[in-house]
Amino acid sequence: MASKQMLHMNHGQGETSYARNSSIQSTEQNRMKHLIEDAIVDLCSTLLPGKMLIADLGCSSGPNALALVSIAVKAIHSHCLEFQQPTPEVCVLLNDLPGNDFNTVVKSLVTLQRSNAPVVVTGIAPGSFYGRLFTSGSLHLVCSSNSLHWLSKAPENLTRNRIPAYDVDEHARRERLPVVLDAYAQQFKKEFRLFLELRAKELVPGGQMVVSLGGRHSNDIASKSIRPCEALYEILHVMDSEVHSFTSLA
Ligand SMILES: C[S@@+](CC[C@H](N)C(=O)[O-])C[C@H]1O[C@@H](n2cnc3c(N)ncnc32)[C@H](O)[C@@H]1O
């Protein structure tokens, strides 16, 4: 869950920073490259825009923050060069929750501005992608990688009944599994739908979205493929209870 105030990936460039621990996510971004290039070709050949607004939602920090928008900017320039079209002025906006390490991101955004001769202006759009971020009918391309499976909150029917996502008591966990799975599936559906409705307002007619998010192949959470995650769930559960006892003490 992404609490608007608290959660963020580890800041900076240190050993435990997201910048130095995001190679799996980077692989996922590489798989999106041709989809972004196709979207750009489509946009440039059908809309022939004089200006283009491109946004990455849930950009985080480190090299991944700029990866998708850099692919898009390069694709615009190659397409326009190949077909001798005038290159549109490009505005690149990066979004994440306010706690994100935008200081580091801003420094690399300047590199993007300098490394592209035609006009590329850049900016930050802080806030939740479960709310409005851009003006109506302004966006040409929305990209997002490894972020849209973050929900804004735990399902209310679980929090109301104090049911954790992962109960360390195996018996309780197995018994409540269908309820927990269903609650998270419903929450995801509700929030993903909201995300799509919001972006539909912000995109220009004919605008494009290229997104990737985590998921699983089957409902069987006991299947071998996810067992390595169990240790992680346990750690998160312990951290979660520590945060709660700290909050009640404070
Ligand atoms: C795993 S990181 C992915 C970062 C980058 N896109 C990548 O592929 O490496 C997920 C990012 O989504 C951001 N995020 C989660 N929920 C969000 C929300 N509601 N609005 C904006 N950003 C959000 C988190 O703060 C985090 O930086």
Automatic annotation (TrEMBL):
Coiled coil: none annotated. GO terms for molecular function: methyltransferase activity. It comes from the Eukaryota. Residues 1-21 are annotated as: Disordered. InterPro entries: MeTrfase_7 (IPR005299), SAM-dependent_MTases_sf (IPR029063). This is Jasmonate O-methyltransferase.
